[in-house]
Structure formats: structure tokens, C-alpha cells
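Something for you to look into today, if you have time. Could you write out one complete protein record for me, on any chain you like? Leave the record below and I will have a look.
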Amino acid sequence: MKARTILTILLSIAGILVCNAQEKNIIKGFSGGMMAHTGYMSGGDNPFGFNPQGMTFGLGGCAKLHLTDHFRAGFEGYFSNVGLKEKSGFQSGSHNKVFWAGALAEWFRKCDRFTPFAGAGTGGGMETSCYILAGDKHDWMPEGSAIYRKQPFFYVDPYIGTEYKVGGALRLIMKADWLLAINSEGLNRPQGPRIYFGVIFAH
């Protein structure tokens, strides 16, 4: 719930900035939209030797100001969840969830209907780890052994992708990234590549 609230606030702020900048004619355009993503995460930085791994799924969005013909900057916010399977040694309901939000900057180039881009985001986030070692999420019994932990982090998120102009203001977007999250103990794990698919509206 907090992740959605923060994302809504960021997109609202971006909308206000876009309106003000457009009135002053200091930008060449703006774009924004939502994306779903998937990927594969692995690795552990816990003291128990656990190695959480599996497919991750999530949602998020971005808003960008086009400051020149090849440079744009803005805000982003996403959440991503890895549901841990019983074959990984965890009980049903175990998960590793990550939320991050911050600023982004990217280079882009228009090539007919395609607009390839490359950039990076930076900001902060929170990892939530829930490892149920005995018990089950489907009953009302207290779990005999479980670990729950939240870890804030700073991140740098390099990415590449492309947009495809469908018509008018509508664009389809695909991008890939590798979130580098750094906490007080070093590089945050699990980590891995994500692929995003979504819709962007540009003006």
C-alpha cells in the first residue's frame, strides 16, 4: 500500500512539473506510462545461508520531461515480488519483495517509428524478506519458525530499451535493466535481470 502511495505521489509531482514547464516553453515534450515486468532473481545476503531464487513479477511506471532532442529526465517507481517455492526450502507464503523509486536520466534517438534509449535511475527503496520455515499461509495457526526483515537501500539502475510508435501519442515500450541496490552491508541480493513491457503516452 505504501509503495502505491509513493508511486502515485511521484507521478503527480511529475505531472505538475510537466504542466509548469510546458507553460514556460522550456521543454520539447513529455512522456509517461505504466509497465509490467518479469525476470529471474537469485542470491542471498542473509546470515543463514539461504539462497532465495525464482521468477519475479511486478508493476510500476515513469514520467519524463524531454529537455533536448536526445535527452530526457524524470521520475520512476516500481515494486517487484519473488514468490519462493517450497522446493527452495521455504514454506508457502515466503517471498522477497522490493520497492524502489527515484529520478532517471536517459539518452534517446528517434528512428522512424522506433525510439531506442539508454539511461539509469537512482534513488532509494526497501527490501522486504519473509521466509516461512515451518507452517503454511493458508491456515490460522501461528507459524513455528519464520523470518521477517526490512532493509532500506540506495540504488543505481542501468537500463536499455526501445519504444515503438503505434499512432498519435501512443507508444509501446520494452526495456531491460539490472537493479544494483546497495544497503548498509553491501550489495543487496537476490538480484538479476528484469524485462519490462508497457504502454507510454508521449506529447
About this structure: The mean pLDDT is 86. The chain is about 10% helix and 60% strand. The domain at 2-202 is CATH 2.40.160.20 (Porin).
